[in-house]
TrEMBL record:
Stretches for region Disordered: 47-66
GO BP term (any one): regulation of DNA-templated transcription
Taxonomic source organism: Amycolatopsis xylanica
Organism placement in taxonomy: Bacteria, Bacillati, Actinomycetota, Actinomycetes, Pseudonocardiales
SUPFAM superfamilies registered for this protein in UniProt: Ribbon-helix-helix
Protein name: HicB family protein
InterPro entries linked: Arc_rbn_hlx_hlx, Ribbon_hlx_hlx
Length: 66
């Protein structure tokens, strides 16, 4: 897996609170929900790169069956 990029994002506190609530409703972290929304916007605009990896679905990852 390739290394993830880190960015600093400044948001209005009210926007962050609304985003965090929305992410919680979707069982995602705020960071994962931001990436989900950005990917969706890029896809709708026809700008999502063809070689972009898939995101894991919402919720907890399945436990390993060791």
């Amino acid at each position: 897996m390739t290394e993830r990029k880190k960015i600093l994002l400044r948001l209005d506190p009210a926007v962050h609170d609304a985003l965090a609530r929305w992410a919680g409703d979707e069982l995602r972290s705020t960071n994962a929900h931001l990436e989900f929304l950005l990917r969706r916007a890029l896809a709708e605009a026809g700008r999502l790169p063809k070689d972009v990896g898939k995101m894991r679905g919402p919720g907890r990852p399945p436990k390993d069956s060791d």
